[in-house]
Amino acid sequence: MQNVHVINHPLIEHKLAILRDSKTEPFHFRLLVDEISYLMLFEATRDLPLKPVEVQTPVAVAKAQKLATSVMICPILRAALGMLDGIFKLIPDASVGFLGFQRNETTLEAEFYYAKLPADHASRTAIIIDPMFATGGTAIDAVNFLKAKGVKDIRFLALVSAPEGLNKFAAVHPDVPVYTACIDEKLNENGYIVPGLGDAGDRVFNTG
Ligand code: URA
Predict the structure, then answer these.
(1) What's the complex ipTM?
(2) How confident is the model over 88-127, as pLDDT tens digits?
(3) Residue 41 in contact with residue 86, Cβ under 8 Å?
(4) Residue limits of the Phosphoribosyltransferase domain (predicted)?
(5) Alpha carbon separation from 201 to 30, 42, 81, 131, 157 (Å, rounded)
(6) What rounded mean pLDDT belongs to the chain?
(7) Annotated binding site
């Protein structure tokens, strides 16, 4: 699938298996979302640009490299809040740009209701996070929103994805890479990913 990167790793596979289990308790589910996000971010940031710097060590001046971009993490409310701590462990100085979408349970479409971006958002590398890449509607709207705000470098990080959503997204935003831990079988008639893991927001926040 074009511009979709499936991040395969035994630790991610193992943690996903426990994450999917309906018997996994909310506190454990939250921990796993956090850990998988952390492991995935390593790959999703592999091509971030670097700039040369000189650093004075206790011994001599070392030629080194630092990130040449600032990162803005964009969690799609609310389930992605469970991924945020894992991301901060790797990029502690990232800014956060909140994107509020909620699913209309009748149309299954995403409805936008809130955004709060850092002032310098247009110059940042945006990493949109959402545990579930389902119909693709929210993802498309979120990227439309950021592009309209002038953001140029946008990538998407999702734990579990549906092929229908990924295909729809790639047709609209072929320039935006999607990093996912797995591509499941399909969407069901309620827009849930099969086999998926159920309602990620409910499982993260114990509201099911
Ligand atoms: N959102 C979820 O939380 N789960 C799904 O399966 C699809 C969308």
Answers:
(1) 0.95
(2) 999 999 999 999 988 777 876 778 999 999 999 999 999 9
(3) yes
(4) 6-207
(5) 10, 24, 9, 9, 16
(6) 96
(7) 78, 103, 130-138, 193, 198-200
Type of residue numbered 11: L
Residue nearest to atom 4 of ligand 1 (CA): 199
**What is the model's pTM?**
0.95
Helix-helix angle 81-90:26-44, to 10 degrees: 50
pLDDT interval class at 69 (50, 70, 90): very high
> How many Å from the N-terminal Cα to the C-terminal Cα in the chain?
33
Domains recognised in the chain with CATH numbers:
4-205 (3.40.50.2020)
CA pair distance 49, 115, nearest whole angstrom: 27
Residue pair 3/169 in contact (Cβ under 8 Å)? The answer is no
Question: What's the gap in Å between 88 CA and the centre of ligand 1?
Answer: 24
Using most ligand atoms within 8 A of CB, pick from 188, 199, 203, 204 the residue to mutate for ligand 1: 199
Dig out the tokens for 125 from the structure.
Answer: 């590398």
- Cα 203 to averaged position of ligand 1 atoms, centre (Å): 10
The CA 194 to ligand 1 mean position distance, Å, reads 9
